[in-house]
Write a structure and sequence with these properties.
Largest sheet: none
Shape: globular
Number of strands: 0
Helix content: over 70%
Strand content: under 5%
Radius of gyration: 22 Å
Order of helices and strands: HHHHHHHHHHHHHHHHHHHHHH
Number of helices: 22
Length: 472
């Protein structure tokens, strides 16, 4: 495939991102639902591609719709690459607070988040071994799809595409991307319903009424007088463009992750792999290792970077760009045929993910979070529906002036949460574990861990003593 085709595929997907933003500005419904522009643009590209127009355009448009098959094929490969950028960026430039501060502030979020994630495995595997595998013939690895898609999101689902292929469960990729899309849409729609409910019932101490949300918030455009720099120049462009330097840091993190993964694959092969015919790391994708590479790089920079060359805001902008392109390209290359062929398992998994997130948020949130439970728990609900950005958006709607500890707690949670679940090592290894050891042992372990974090949240974090100041 020529570089010209690859370049054109990237140009078109970037155009779709801009079109998605323009549509959101023009459609009040999309503004009220706070739909991300990447999601809107992805649906536009999907509509114009082979799965919709390509099926009805006849000979005039061809099988690819308005796009060639090569372009759609490239879009399908982009998410698996970009997820490495997203995860490598998680902790670069992130100043780690003291462990006591992390737990005191973020502990309730950790307990709730882990309970929800382990519950997704429990519910998903139960569905797989009782209905999905025996009745519909899908791999038992389908039991991991709820956690992969609803907590991990599009990036994690896309990053595991190679793993799905390696175990012969190719349809798992499209199901996972479809579930992630349902999760994100449900997250913003149901999230706004919950916000309205909380406003009427007085469940939040900081919430402004949804009718009072500003036009700028709904449109997603920052007013000129409120615009701030998205990053600072840590180097002179005469020596190196600061953005290029930060891309280089992310590349180093990914490369460290690559070396780690290759080392683990080799070590596994020469030890228990050959002895017991158990192989796990060969199914693990690069992105969780890229995250560890980012942590290693950050530890090195914190010790030796005396000039403070890393700017966290710049890293976040690069991460955001990668995530936007990842989401739009994943949706644009989605196979509706695969979802249609497995529509009943898809609906079962989607319904289970949505219902469990709502129940755990409304039921366990007040029990596990000692103060500002709605302001803080709505972030975990949003992240549990597919992406951390949804959780942050909902928290900002509920607490626009940051009067509660919600944002700090959510950020601290990621330090103890992301390395393992929600796209971390456990998420990446869940499919190999199910294939190697069977779904029942994994179900037992997930159940024990779910109960453990459930008890931790209800009997410990929910009873923490906190300084609870009145936000008014």
């Amino acid at each position: 495939m020529s570089l010209e085709v690859i370049g054109m595929a990237i140009i078109i997907i970037a155009m779709m991102l801009a079109i998605g933003k323009w549509i959101r500005l023009k459609v009040p419904l999309f503004q009220g639902l706070f739909l991300p522009s990447s999601l809107i643009g992805g649906f536009v590209a999907l509509l114009l591609g082979p799965e919709v127009i390509g099926r009805f355009g006849g000979d005039f448009l061809g099988d690819g719709g308005l796009f060639t098959n090569n372009i759609v094929e490239i879009w399908g490969e982009l998410p698996g690459l970009l997820i490495n950028v997203v995860f490598a960026s998680l902790f670069i430039g992130f100043v780690l607070p003291k462990p006591k501060e992390i737990w005191q502030t973020g502990g309730p979020q950790v307990a709730l988040g882990y309970t929800m994630s382990w519950a997704h495995y429990v519910i998903g595997i139960l569905l797989a071994i009782t209905i999905i595998t025996p009745l519909f013939g899908l791999s038992p690895a389908a039991g991991a799809l709820i956690e992969i898609s609803f907590v991990g999101g599009h990036g994690t689902a896309a990053g595991l595409s190679g793993t799905f292929e390696d175990i012969g469960f190719e349809e798992g990729y499209d199901l996972a991307i479809g579930l992630a899309t349902v999760g994100m849409l449900s997250g913003v729609v149901i999230g706004m319903i919950l916000v309205n409910w909380a406003a009427r019932k007085g469940k939040s101490r900081t919430l402004q009424h949804p009718n009072d949300i500003s036009v700028d918030q709904k449109s997603g455009v920052v007013a000129e007088q409120k615009r701030e720099a998205s990053g600072i120049q840590t180097t002179s462009p005469v020596s190196i463009e600061p953005l290029a330097l930060h891309v280089g840091f992310i590349a180093i993190a990914i490369f460290i992750g690559y070396l780690l993964l290759e080392g683990f694959v080799w070590l596994e092969d020469v030890t228990y792999g050959q002895a017991y015919d158990i192989y796990l790391f060969e199914y693990v994708p690069l992105f969780p290792m890229a995250m560890i590479g980012g942590i290693i790089l950050q530890l090195f920079l914190a010790k030796f970077d005396k000039r403070k060359l890393v700017d966290r805001k710049t890293i976040s902008r690069i991460q955001g760009l990668a995530l936007d392109i990842l989401i739009i390209s994943a949706i644009a290359s989605l196979s509706l045929t695969v979802i249609g062929d497995n529509i009943v398992p898809f609906i079962l998994l989607a319904a289970a993910g949505i219902i469990s997130n709502i129940v755990f948020f409304l039921w366990l949130g007040p029990k596990m979070i000692p103060n500002y439970w709605f302001e803080r728990g709505i972030g975990d609900f949003g992240q549990g529906m597919g992406v951390a950005a949804t959780g942050i958006m909902l928290m900002r709607i509920v607490d626009p002036e940051n009067k509660s500890p919600a944002l700090d707690a959510f950020g601290y949670k990621q330090i103890l949460f992301e390395p393992l679940v929600g796209g971390g090592l456990v998420t990446a290894a869940s499919i190999p574990f199910i294939i190697q050891f069977g779904p029942v042992p994994v179900l037992i372990v997930a159940t024990v861990l779910m109960i453990a974090f459930w008890c931790l949240g209800v009997f410990h974090t929910g009873k923490m003593k906190v300084e609870d100041k009145d936000p008014k």
